[in-house]
Hints:
The protein has four helices and no strands. By secondary structure, the chain is an all-alpha fold.
Amino acid sequence: MKYVRKTVWMLVWMMVLVFSLHFFGYETFAAEKTTKWRPTYDLILRWINFGIIVLIFYKYAKTPIMNFLRGQKEKLAKEIKKLEDKKEDMANKVKEMQKALDDSEVHFADLKERIIHQGDRRKQEIIESAKNHSRIMLEDANRKIDSYILSSKNTFKAELIDAAIELAKERLPNEITDEDNERFIAQYIASASTE
C-alpha cells in the first residue's frame, strides 16, 4: 500500500511537470529558430530525464538489479570455489605424482645397483669358470703331450734298440773274436760271483 501511494504521487508530479511545460512553454514548441534559450532548455530537460530514469531505476529496478547482482556474485563465488577445489585437487595429484616419481627414481636406482651387482658377480663367476676350464684343458693337454712324448720316446727307444740290435747282428759276428768271447764270459762270472 505504501508503494502504491508513492507511485501514484510520482505519476501525479510527472503529469503536473509535463502539463506545466506544455502550458507555460507553448511558445518553445513552435520556436525552432530561437537560439538564446534553446540550449539551456535542452540541457535542463536532459538532466530532468536523467533524474527521472535514475529515480525509476532506484524505486523499481533497485531490488531486482541487486538480487541479480547478488545472484551473480553467489554464482561467481560458487564457480571460484569449484575452481579452487579443482586447483587444490590438481595440486594434490601433482604432489602424489611427484612423490611417485621420486619413489620410482629411488626404486630405479636401487634396481640398477642390484642389477650391476648381480652382473659383476655373474661376470666373476664366468671368469672363474673360464679360468678353471682353461686350467683343466691345459692340464689335460699337458698330460696328453707328456703321454705322446713318453710314447714317442718309448717308440723311438724301441726302434733305436731294434735298429741297434739289427746293426749289431750284422756287425758283431764279423767283429767279435774268440778272445772277446772268453773275456765276456770272465766278466760275467766275475760280476755274478760278486753279487
